[in-house]
Design goal:
By secondary structure, this protein is mostly helical. The chain has a single domain, classed as yst0336 like domain (yst0336 like fold, Orthogonal Bundle). It has helices at about 5-10, 10-25, 35-55, 70-80, 90-95, 95-105, 140-150, 155-165, and strands spanning about 120, 135-140. Helix 4 packs across helix 7.
Length: about 160
């Protein structure tokens, strides 16, 4: 992902301004394309950092939040049968899915930092972030699914393929 060059092009003052702008409440903005670009950069950077992390550290040892156990338990109670190895768009975006995800996500407001920030999520846990393998999700959805993937061994494929172990 080429997000580093995009941020570098902003310079220190621009990057600081971007960080400040992203911390303001959503109702402070209209449909500003510059803000959308900043969000895209931030989401892309997060995805790149996370993928590098699971590529270099055995995912079963990762702790993503202070409340991983609570997230995992609640996630598996709410989404017992969700196939996290190979997600489908409708698992997150259908009307029925949104009705199930909304209360799950909202229970972590004030508990998980930036719980509703836009984040990129891989659909197929065996593959890298690509246009066809990426969906936009909230941060708490990302954490819930990736914590489950780490604990249930679905991210080991990435770790083993990148580390040649």
């Amino acid at each position: 992902m080429a997000t580093h060059s995009a941020l570098a092009s902003l310079g220190p003052e621009g990057a600081t301004s971007a960080a400040h702008a992203l911390s303001l409440p959503a109702d402070a903005y209209g449909n500003d394309p510059r803000l959308e670009a900043m969000w895209a950069i931030k989401a892309s950077e997060h995805a790149e950092v996370y993928f590098n992390l699971i590529s270099s550290v055995d995912p079963k040892f990762l702790k993503l939040t202070k409340v991983d156990d609570q997230l995992y338990t609640s996630f598996r109670e709410t989404f017992k049968d969700l196939d996290i190895k190979l997600l489908k768009t409708e698992d997150l975006k259908s009307v029925e899915a949104k009705e199930r995800w909304r209360p799950f996500c909202n229970q972590f407001e004030g508990i998980v930092e930036d719980f509703n920030y836009g984040t990129l999520l891989r659909l197929n846990s065996d593959k890298e972030y690509t246009e066809d393998n990426t969906i936009f999700a909230t941060r708490v959805q990302f954490y819930a699914i990736e914590i489950a993937r780490n604990r249930e061994g679905f991210n080991e494929t990435v770790f083993k393929s990148k580390s040649n172990r």
